[in-house]
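Title: Prediction job returns without error message
Component: structure pipeline
Severity: low
Priority: P3
Assignee: unassigned

Description:
Job completed but the reporter wants confirmation the result is attached to the right record. Sequence as submitted:
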Amino acid sequence: MLQPLRLGPVAVDRARYLPPMLMPLVNAAARGDDIVPEVQALVRAFGFDSFMYATANYHLRPDNDERMYVFTTLPREWVIRYDQRAYVECDPRVVASFDNALPLVWDQQSERGRSVKADEFLADAAAHGVASGVAFPVYATYPSRNIVALNSASPLIARERRNEIIQRLGEIVLFGQFFHELFVKGVIERGLPPLSEGAPLSSREKHCLQLASHGLTSAEIGTRLGIVDRTVNFHFANILSKLAVRNRHEAIAKAATLGLLATSASP
């Protein structure tokens, strides 16, 4: 069973454009109800099977680095698998959000062949019901990096279905924008912790912490691991969320206290 998501009571400015199909979601948030049923209904109305939202969010204090918040209607088993296998490094939905502000309509055919790691992710994701879909970054005035993805279990998007998705992209993107607005007001501005708090670090996250403890920057860690520094920052956002600390200095100290850093390892 999905974990409920009650954000409210949270209100948005209804004087701005609010598509009628989003009214049940906005009304549920305003009442303080669980919004998961409304999210699922919208996802199905758009012709998809599941929903994912993630924000790497900066808290407005000089000693705070970003933290990671994730909400998804996908099974917890897949969330854990995605996290522990560091799929954020090769997930084409995330990579595309780094490089382009436009939506990505993707399937198994359009994204295969880019790298061995990406192909491994695509095969594993498809086996867990994430075989195609649409993904896009969400604009926010609050300092953060945000992505929304609607997923389908269908491995290929036929031409007719692709045209249908394109015709409805405006509504889909507005859905993502409204969800982000509600989530920020209902979770982040209320100071609620990420759901990942207390979860175990992945081996990749431990490696990033180990390198950081030797003074390496995100760019240097990225070079060492063969990933871009923005992906390294995503790892640290997740680390901070799991360890419930404010910045990477505190993360290193807490990891050392917990025995998560190999004292004999070299940078």
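Comment from assignee: result matches the submitted record. The mean pLDDT is 92.
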